[in-house]
Design brief:
heterodimer; A: alpha/beta; 9 helices; globular; B: alpha+beta; Ubiquitin-like (UB roll); 2 helices
Chain lengths: 306, 92
């Protein structure tokens, strides 16, 4: 059981850039949500200093390892990532003074690799054909081979990941909506967002909608097609009231609409989550909050914006 | 000399479990069409309705990104290796 709480986290990072993680804006989507039964509101996670929602679990996982006494100087933080968690961990480790190794599939978008390296991370490039699951297997191999060297934070199994959302993201949504949130919609990658927000808001009557890609071969960065992927240990599908799937083409179309109609420049996962939320808002009334995980800048080298 | 085509696990269901195939050369579109004849439905997973590479699929011919060599019209020289990978990996 983690010893962390929101107050302790704030105290630990006071006076640094990490203090700015969280308290992201909640914005109503007036045009995309026009004519729907429910009101659509988006939690804009690109406002975090590392540019994505992953700042939250990265900070909590590193601080949790510190609290447990696992993170001593000269030990190396290790994780597997397809990008955003790598950037977030790299920023956190830069501030806290730790070396970081990231197992990352070769040929992920150039931006992520360059940003993580800019923060001082060492990258271990894994077989692109094996995707994130190959990166996970390589991180596991390294952690087992040299346990004295590495602190493997393992975002897929680390309870500090959902805890960051339970005590951070969910609490913010409840406060920002004045307790009027009725639905929460987010994609499933590590599943930390859904698991954490569900733990806090489901007991208050909020319906939790979890969204996955509709195909094993997809372009929704950060999301997992659970039937064909390594299952995260923290994932529990019973924590969602509704499970939906999203096609990449529909996600990309909504990503472009968000930029042109709402002024929100996001990546494919943001478009996917909002597209799923519009379906919910078409069917049900209430205040529907959807999480937009990152910004579009991370995808400029991909064909999305050509 | 045939070309070797390597596929990600996420396309295994489209090829009866195979992730390493061989095909004749020609253009990338020819290579994909040949695999589609053996495994119907394969082409639609990597090409859109207009015959272009789907935006979330990257193809490398040797070390070169096929998009820099004409996309699905890129020439695949005899004996080369073609690698199909998701443009964006899943899982944060």
């Amino acid at each position: 059981m983690s010893r962390l709480n929101a107050e302790l986290v704030r105290e630990r990072v006071r006076g640094t850039i990490l203090e700015r993680i969280g308290d992201t804006p909640l914005i109503q989507l007036h045009r995309v949500g026009a004519g729907l039964r429910g009101d659509l509101w988006a939690k804009i996670e690109s406002a975090n200093p590392g540019g994505s929602v992953k700042d939250r679990p990265a900070l909590w996982m590193v601080l949790d390892a510190e609290e447990e006494g696992r993170l001593r100087r000269r030990r190396v933080v290790l994780d597997a990532t397809s990008g955003n968690t790598g950037v977030a961990l790299a920023m956190v480790c830069a501030v806290r003074g730790y070396a970081l190794e990231l197992c990352i599939p070769d040929k992920v978008s150039l931006e992520r690799k360059r940003i993580a390296r800019a923060f001082g991370a060492q990258l271990v490039l894994t077989d692109p054909l094996e995707g994130t699951d190959g990166a996970i297997r390589e991180a596991q191999r390294r952690a087992v081979a040299d346990p004295d060297r590495y602190v493997y934070v393992d975002q897929y199994s680390n309870q500090a990941n959902p805890l960051a959302h339970e005590l951070g993201t969910a609490a913010e949504i409840w406060k920002q909506s004045g307790g009027r949130v009725t639905h929460f919609v987010a994609g499933v990658g590590t599943s930390g967002t859904i698991v954490g927000v569900s733990s806090a808001l489901r007991p208050k009557g909020v319906r939790i909608v979890a969204v996955q890609p509709d195909d094993a071969l997809h372009g929704i960065e950060g999301w997992k097609h659970m039937p064909t992927a390594l299952r995260p240990a923290i994932w529990d599908e019973r924590l969602a009231d509704v499970h939906r799937v999203m096609a990449t083409d529909e996600a990309l179309a909504m990503t472009k609409r968000l930029a042109r109609e709402e002024g929100i420049f996001t990546g494919p996962s943001g478009g996917a989550a909002v597209a799923a939320a519009t379906r919910v808002a078409r069917e049900e009334s209430g205040r529907i909050v959807v999480l937009i995980a990152d910004g579009g800048e991370r995808y400029l080298s991909t064909p999305l914006w050509e | 000399m045939p070309v070797t085509v390597r596929l990600p696990g996420s396309l295994r269901d489209a090829t009866g479990g195979e992730t390493k195939l061989t095909a004749s050369g020609g253009t990338l579109r020819d290579v994909i069409a040949e695999i589609d004849r053996r495994h119907p439905g394969f082409a639609s997973r990597v090409l859109d309705e207009g015959g272009a590479l789907r935006s979330y699929v990257n193809v490398y011919i040797g070390e070169d990104d096929a998009r820099t060599r004409g996309g699905s019209g890129a020439v695949v020289p005899d004996g080369s290796e073609v690698m199909v990978i998701p443009a964006m990996a899943g899982g944060g």
